[in-house]
Amino acid sequence: MEPITFNPLYMERVWGGRELERIYQRTLPDPAKPFGESWEIVDREKEQSVVDQGPWNGSSLHELWTNHREEIFGTGFLDHPSFPILIKVLDARDELSIQVHPPASLAASLGGEPKTEMWFIADCDPGAKLYVGLKNGVTRADFEQAIADGSVADCVHAITPAPGESIFIASGRLHAIGAGFLIHEIQQNSDTTYRVFDWNRLGLDGKPRELHVAESLASIDFTDFEPTMDTPVGETLASCEYFQTDHKSLAAGETIANPRNDRFSILSVVDGQLQSEGGRRFGKGNFMLLPRDAAPLKAHENTTVLQITLPR
Length: 312
Known about the structure:
Helices cover 13% and strands 34% of the residues. By secondary structure, the chain is mostly beta strands.
């Protein structure tokens, strides 16, 4: 089978911009609105990836996962009712809220879903900052006082990364993406975010966005001090019980296939261009599902990709 591609779902965000248009030559749904997220691979009740061409054209990811799992995805997966990961591109022209996702042990009691994720820095402005974890010595009492007086930003650790770097954001890790980033996010299939601080700004409707202080305080890991960007292990950027993300560099003419020919993978083209056996080309910013037993893709030029797989 040829690679399977989907129509992205674009989400308007108060902190978003137009970089998807400028860098990836995407056609956005509105000529002026700020779009902060492009949901590339998603299987949720209200948000569905839909195949954009080929024999499965018009089918949703949920239909493929439910009715053609072995044929397309392979065997040996846990019996998730929905495709278990969600992949986005984030365009942050302004700071995102300082937030946290609930750990698995607490999510149900808080009315949410656990969410562990990783970020790959596809592009960023010089000096752009990520906010991850706490500054050394910040206690829960210090943090609660900062919420009360509006100084939460002073408690959060800042990192200045470079394009090509990545960081793992486990459930419970306090975090925010600063202004000036284009990020590929691989995450559990969840949409639960608890905002603890939103930079004292107004949302798109002109009102302050909802905060979730009690849920945030219950979820934050108050022992997570001053993390750094991750160091890859060989080609592997992140590996956990929910997903694995590998970073592959191909010279022109080299090929990439599924790590196991009996199981699928998802490819994200960071730079360069891939070509399928059937002649389809996939350039910078393209995402595709490579079905089990699919033929390898060839690099049309020097090409960098992320390859995402599910654990056995």
